Amino acid sequence: MKSYESVSCAKVSAKDIEILLIDDDQSYCRLVKMALARAGQPARFAVQTAGSLAEGLKYLNSRSFDLVLLDLGLPDSFGLETFDRVHSACPDISVVMVTGLEDLKISVEAIQKGASDYLVKGADSFVDILVRTILYALERKRADEMLRLSEKNFRNIINNSADAIIVTDQKGLILFANPAAEAFFGWTSQELLGKDFEYPITVGRTAEMEVTRKCGGKALAELRAVETTWQGKAACLVSLRDITARKAAERKMAKYRDNLKALVRERTEKVDAEKELLSVTFSSMGDGVIVVDPEKRIVLFNRVAEILAGWEFERVQDRGLDEIFRVVDERTRQKVESPVDKVLKSSKAELGADFEVLLAMDGSERPISSKAAPIRSSDGAVTGIVMVFRDVAREREIERLKQDFISSISHELRTPLTSIKAYTETILSDSNMPEETKRQFLGIIDEESNRLAGLIEGLLEISRIESGTMKIVREPVDIVAVARKVLTALQALADKQNIRLESDIDDDLAIFEGDEDKIQSALTNLVNNAIKFTPRDGRVCVSVRQRDDHLVMRVSDTGMGIPKEALPRIFDRFYRVPHPGKHIQGTGLGLAIVKKIVTMHGGRIEVESELNRGTTFTIFLPLTAAAVPETQPAN
Ligand code: ADP
């Protein structure tokens, strides 16, 4: 007899519900099979029958079933024991007991031990109940399995969570602690269970708190609590995240940010100060400064550049340099290459041409000296060029004066020398020269020698001034006596020109402390000039007075006067007012020496003059020896 068959007579498919029916009642077995075969959708049943427990267990051991229909009263086993043996052989399989009325109590006990359900043989609607019971039992089994699986998953998640998870009951006693909680607190799960979770919990809120570990160390935790049920009772699930390292990193970060802010502030202040310094330096520089980009477009133009070139920065900004900065050679009038062009070729600092003349916007010309240097970025590329230039009119004038001086001094030295040599040779070559002629000639030689000596003395004096070695020896000076001495010494010269030499000297002067020789030399120079630049029959007056705490010496003449434009320059070394067609002896050094002597005494000199009417020089000397430096740089 075929003991295994698909009750629907169809091929047993994977979807068939495999049922093992253990029952020794053959007719009941047939009934069950027929009932299940008729059941049809939604499931098909494949029924295996076994007439004894031993046979049933054999099937259970050899293959798998979805459900066992078990009669408790079998030839080889009876009652609860039957269930126990099946259940212990296959604890996971659903077992539905098939009982007579007399076994009802045992069936209930079996259910308590894990059986799925029971059926009472011979009850009404047995077939319907049979199918439904089987399906319910299987469904429950599946639901139980799902529940077990999801619980397993849940445990898995909790046990592998990086956060510490603690479950407490409503009184706060710990019911569960996951491995991360053990690691966090340092207590084992066993040690934690039943203990009071001593930290405040607010359900639904996240809080940060300091927790104490078993070792006594502190840690910072972010704590979050939710309500849950644990083993059927209301509980609280607390998750704790160790944020000690994160907080330390945040603190470090905050400190780093503060430091960075302070650094940025400091740097910004420094850069602002440097910018300010640069801008002040730039605008207050005595030289003209122009900054251009590599395309020679003007980027910066300082105040002096505006004055020298005659352009305002607003008008030249972004314009080409060549349009604004036009330079020609003073001698050839040809355009010269600007130092900026040279820098663009060589990428190094360059000087401008030798005789540059800048043509200003209004057409005026200015001799200049210029130089330029590249501005480099950190990678060495030329990002611009700075050009510095200055007005050298005065230097060129001084240069010219020096040249004039050299030719004039050689002339001045040669004139007395030529005359001395000529008269000496004449005397030597003529042994019969009358005594009177000889004396006259010797007188001229003497006079010329004196002139030569004076000239050389002037040169030495100016060289002492230039080198800063001129010294003032301070002692009480009888200024009245000095003035009279000067007048006496120059009386003869004045007489020669028929010039009246007058004096207005206050006899009652306070004691003046100074260098007598130098004061005498200064006064001599002024009176000598007055006589020299006054035509015949003129008048020269020397006055010495006291005004408050100053000694005032004035030398005035009725001479040719000094042109207005020459007045600011007459104290310059080597400067002489040109007098075309006239030869007036001199070196242009006298007034420079006088001014130096006066300033070394702490005083000052002033000049007033009117052309063809006369000139007045006034020296002011402080009576109290103010703290005047012994030497001053030549001016
Ligand atoms: P020097 O007399 O040797 O030429 P100074 O330095 O004494 O040189 O004088 C400079 C110039 O100032 C003179 O060359 C002259 O042109 C002008 N000067 C000085 N004193 C007088 C004066 N009293 N009257 C007119 N011109 C004067």
Could you say which structural class the secondary elements and strand pairing correspond to?
Answer: alpha+beta
CA radius of gyration is: 64 Å
List segments where confidence is low: pLDDT < 50 over at least 5 consecutive residues: 1-14, 627-635
Q: What is the number of helices?
A: 17
Major sheet characteristics: 7 strands, antiparallel
Would you mind describing this structure in some detail?
It is a single chain. With 635 residues, the protein is an alpha+beta fold. 43% of the residues lie in helices and 25% in strands. Strands 14, 15, 16, 17, 18, 19 and 20 form a 7-stranded antiparallel β-sheet that branches. The chain has a 6-stranded mixed β-sheet with strand order 1-3-2-4-7-8, sandwiched between helices. Strands 10-9-13-12-11 form a 5-stranded antiparallel β-sheet. Mean pLDDT is 87; it is low at 1-14 and 627-635.
What is the gist of this entry?
By secondary structure, this protein is an alpha+beta fold.
Show the helix and strand layout.
Layout: E1 4-6, E2 17-22, H1 26-39, E3 45-50, H2 53-62, E4 67-71, E5 73-74, E6 77-78, H3 80-89, E7 94-99, H4 104-113, E8 117-120, H5 126-160, E9 164-169, E10 174-177, H6 179-185, H7 189-192, E11 206-212, E12 218-230, E13 233-242, H8 244-284, E14 288-292, E15 298-301, H9 303-309, H10 313-316, H11 321-324, E16 326-329, H12 339-346, E17 350-351, E18 356-359, E19 365-376, E20 382-391, H13 393-429, H14 435-467, E21 475-477, H15 479-496, E22 500-505, E23 512-514, H16 516-532, E24 539-547, E25 550-557, H17 590-600, E26 604-610, E27 614-622
Parallel strand pairs: 2-3, 2-4, 4-7, 7-8, 22-24
Antiparallel strand pairs: 1-3, 5-6, 9-10, 9-13, 11-12, 12-13, 14-15, 14-20, 16-18, 17-19, 18-19, 19-20, 21-23, 24-25, 25-27, 26-27
The structure holds adenosine-5'-diphosphate.
Residues 529-530, 533, 557, 559-562, 570, 575-577, 586-592, 615 line the site of adenosine-5'-diphosphate.
